[in-house]
């Protein structure tokens, strides 16, 4: 304690004696003053201890992981992941993790919200994703780690922010995989109807709230992806590449046939629900751009990551956005927008109605089934790598970072992810899952945009394979677009998201803050 504020103990003894108190004209006031002054040293010490604890807490939540920490192995780290693919495979990973959800599934929920102006919704979502992709490209070229935006936030925004971003990513990947798996059952039923004339009963093909009891096709899809992921990253990427090429061919066939039956009258009225509907549709379909983040999660498994990561992010986004807009224009031009609501396996039904033939619809249904499989595969892959990265940093139990010495994959981690996603897909309807996924995706993308600005200020001399142009205007614009889409989400999504973040904070302050690798390295 500062000597200037030390209490006069002689005076305290005199004031506390019976003689001095007896002479005091106001006995109660003097006694209270004596007690307060006598207690002052302990109060000051307690306040000092509390302030020290508060400073320690603040230091912990804002501590950033040094860039060198993403490359130098630490004591608690397990066997590293294998670097097993290059630029083409990585680009196909981004396309595979993106094309499928927004076109094959979410189109039937987005068109009723915006009408024909859903094409503008795809443009808005595409612009937002493009701006964010450029930010991702810079951070990925500087910090090619497995955690994608979680790792970027850890290097720029601090530990608590990184943990919450990681929670958003886990929400984004887990719920997205569940939403995709729910939609897969629709196309599987359509495929079975066309081929064998039988379909799975609604009680076993739809979740509660959508006319069913349990979504068994969704659970089966997760199980198939689990088996492939356990074989290793190289096998999973090869399968994804083949499925992506097949899905692009099928979508090209749909665009050609649908444009041959194009009717401009289907675009009137163009925006029946105004800008509110356009923004709402853009928010709900934005989760389909999750493939951009999935590319970044592969930072520890790609050759020459400083070059290949930013290029793969940009290439995959260009392919995806072009495909989305073309298919949306062709679909609405071929069918009035009012018929999309509640239409299962929408693109397949459109082809059957246009041609009167079974084979185009069969081809598209088969392509959609494979496409949705590849998206689910990539999304599950991404979630396991996020958990792996957070566990490497000590913020989650070591269980999630144990790598199988033969397959070079986090086997136990993969089992946990598959079980959780299968449970969600089995019992939750599609619309609830879609909006919650969009929220997690947009929060993560906004954090990346802000992280670019902070990282450029803190580490201006760090080698980067790519730099965002028009800095800092472009990252700020990217964050603004993300916030606009977040504001367009329904109120119940905010409530569910707040509950998720609250649970994440509880885990961080009771477990992660005490187990952090940065805490042990600073001792």
TrEMBL record:
<keyword id="KW-0472">Membrane</keyword>
<keyword id="KW-1133">Transmembrane helix</keyword>
<feature type="transmembrane region" description="Helical">
    <location>
        <begin position="311"/>
        <end position="337"/>
    </location>
</feature>
<dbReference type="InterPro" id="IPR002293">
    <property type="entry name" value="AA/rel_permease1"/>
</dbReference>
<dbReference type="Pfam" id="PF13520">
    <property type="entry name" value="AA_permease_2"/>
</dbReference>
<protein>
    <submittedName>
        <fullName>Amino acid permease</fullName>
    </submittedName>
</protein>
<feature type="transmembrane region" description="Helical">
    <location>
        <begin position="117"/>
        <end position="139"/>
    </location>
</feature>
<feature type="transmembrane region" description="Helical">
    <location>
        <begin position="436"/>
        <end position="456"/>
    </location>
</feature>
<feature type="transmembrane region" description="Helical">
    <location>
        <begin position="90"/>
        <end position="111"/>
    </location>
</feature>
<feature type="transmembrane region" description="Helical">
    <location>
        <begin position="468"/>
        <end position="487"/>
    </location>
</feature>
<feature type="transmembrane region" description="Helical">
    <location>
        <begin position="212"/>
        <end position="230"/>
    </location>
</feature>
<feature type="transmembrane region" description="Helical">
    <location>
        <begin position="276"/>
        <end position="299"/>
    </location>
</feature>
<feature type="transmembrane region" description="Helical">
    <location>
        <begin position="242"/>
        <end position="264"/>
    </location>
</feature>
<feature type="transmembrane region" description="Helical">
    <location>
        <begin position="357"/>
        <end position="381"/>
    </location>
</feature>
<feature type="transmembrane region" description="Helical">
    <location>
        <begin position="493"/>
        <end position="513"/>
    </location>
</feature>
<feature type="transmembrane region" description="Helical">
    <location>
        <begin position="412"/>
        <end position="430"/>
    </location>
</feature>
<feature type="transmembrane region" description="Helical">
    <location>
        <begin position="160"/>
        <end position="184"/>
    </location>
</feature>
<keyword id="KW-0812">Transmembrane</keyword>
